[in-house]
């Protein structure tokens, strides 16, 4: 997330040389060959996605239409270099299913990867892994109510590999083998996925969907389907669904890559032109419209409401103002209306947040507009009450909304909201030339789904600037009123106990007139950073020297602060500031776990210097600033994404939090209340239990990692929070990393006025610095925990300790490969063969600050009866790897994606920041960066075998099972 420094330091003067294409990249752009790459059906003069709109055409895209109806979009893009991104979008999802077919669109998605025209059974995923495409990251598919999308991001694409991949993917989608045998193999996998996603969250989602979209197809068709319809799937039925909807007229192919657009277009035409549909085209079904009940009040048309009682889950409620979805013409005026609606919603959300911060009756609330699955154009309001009085919270939120509907906002509120959008859109435009091809492809697929055009970031920014100048209070007021007009209001409340919660009470609360409350209106003027108190006396660095890696510069200030600067202009307008300070989890005392959790929730919002959270919002208006906080094993971390013109202000926020922390009580009390309300939800399914207890158990029940109970949260005080974090903010070293598009001299000057001006730090005691991370002793397991959720859900974890420390950084990389090999074997055994688990997971961690604490663990969600099967399989895999090692093919399937991820990732500055963080204090990190590539690429099966022997086979795996408390009998014991 401290070792042998003198030896490592001797090597630092050498400059890092890595065989990474990102560092010394020869062009890999595939150029068009005359006579070969000449697309026949490209239409640059009449792109299909822009018909009927006045949105300026983005000429970087080339659009075409094949005679069979396939539409395509291609674009040359070299981010990352050599990558190809393919998307095949089928305009059919769960909403297109009949009642008997529910879940079949998603089942078909699985079957497409099973076997097809060019792939034998189970060959597709390993094939693309060998080419460097990681499962789930580079090779994936998604099924929504309205669309099924197949995705391939192929790194290191050549003309041949791109051509082959498009050909093979086309065969998968056009001609899958939908045999009875394959359906029988994939149905259990989909049922396992359904089981993993079952439980309270899905029940709430299903009730919400059926209530909000009552009477419409969307309300009855979740993509995952039902057990009955999935078990009833037949080869003939799935084939009929495929024939009906997988037609060229329903397909859009997007291909973005490091190749001339003629090459890309010709490739699409080559493999999709001969696709023929069977019989006449089936029309899209009528999705239905939201309808108010007969006799409803036209000014307050409350329709369907529902109450879901789920013990343990926090009380929440949401309601939607529903309007029919209407096919629009995506033009300039439509986007102006959208922007006005967004500004109106942003102003209300800011007011709601201010009221929650002041200790109101709700912990949080929000307003948002969404066009859902071409079914509803809705405005949705969500409320999280602070306690049991949901009626007071709802009335409070409705009062803020009623005030927004009573009178226009101030121009100052509009300007603050517009400034936030301006920063976001300006940043997007500045980043346009480094947009990843995968994101560009996804943008077109998304636009097709919602039936809108695409605009370049530069076009959208120019449009925003031309329109936002006309955003008057009257315009925003009219848009805000439109947000809350609709055909019908529908609502759902989630209650943990059912007390005071009924459909009648919820309906009555919504029908009751809202009393406007203008207390949350914000008319205060903006705050200027120049008016804030200085951190201290500015001090320039006493030492400026190369870090020894690339052209990273290391700075040392007289107060002990160290900094790293890395300037790269390939990401215009993007700068990451990461401040690592103190000792992280090592510095937290055994009785401070509650304040550790509250710190991650409330430390930032408790303010700094003269600024509370509301004032921080105002001072940041119009700036690109971030303020994230997290705790790592060896350091606390502040991080923000900014730009050069805002860099000094970003540094000021971080330095001021250390130099002059503010201790507002309301954020701490709000965080404690939210954590206490949510605590019981941990017990509702296996994942929740793992989120609550796994870290604590893997750390041998170290009290620092225990999730605080409601009683402990109730006993926590703002004074205890202040006492704990005052100490932690003052002690331990500071490293500031500034990476990205920076002016180095200006950055150094900004550092001198902020971090260089801090007072010297307190030195933590040696027992804090050297505190080890423990792992459960042999014989301390197995551990069995219970959950109160569904009886067919369980989770199993098996884990082994490894080690830690930066002097063994190369070893940690090879252990990561070992974990990935175990993962693909588990996936093959549990998912592909047995259908027992949808997504078994293996993780290898290796802390750099301590010589202990590293862990390899495997986890799967399974049927309770299959928990012993998981343990047996994991131990068998480990024993085999220790005895025989992995095959060459297995190693290639994990090494190649990692190798290519390094090459792709190294084009961005955050890749280098993640590798080098901590290097000013621990030189091993910079030293071993030079071997990053070879540590992975040159790993041999024998090395993996030796690691399996040393760390896994040498001791039994520690076991944890999470079982349903209402099981009739525990699963039979198995294994050692």
UniProtKB/TrEMBL annotation:
Keyword annotations from UniProtKB, A to Z: Hydrolase, Metalloprotease, Protease, Signal, Zinc
Peptidase M16 N-terminal domain sequence ranges: 84-220
Cleaved signal peptide residues: 1-24
Taxonomy, superkingdom: Bacteria
Domain annotation Peptidase M16 C-terminal: ranges: 234-419, 718-895
Protein family: Belongs to the peptidase M16 family.
Name the UniProt record assigns to this protein: Insulinase family protein
Classification of source organism: Bacteria, Pseudomonadati, Pseudomonadota, Alphaproteobacteria, Sphingomonadales
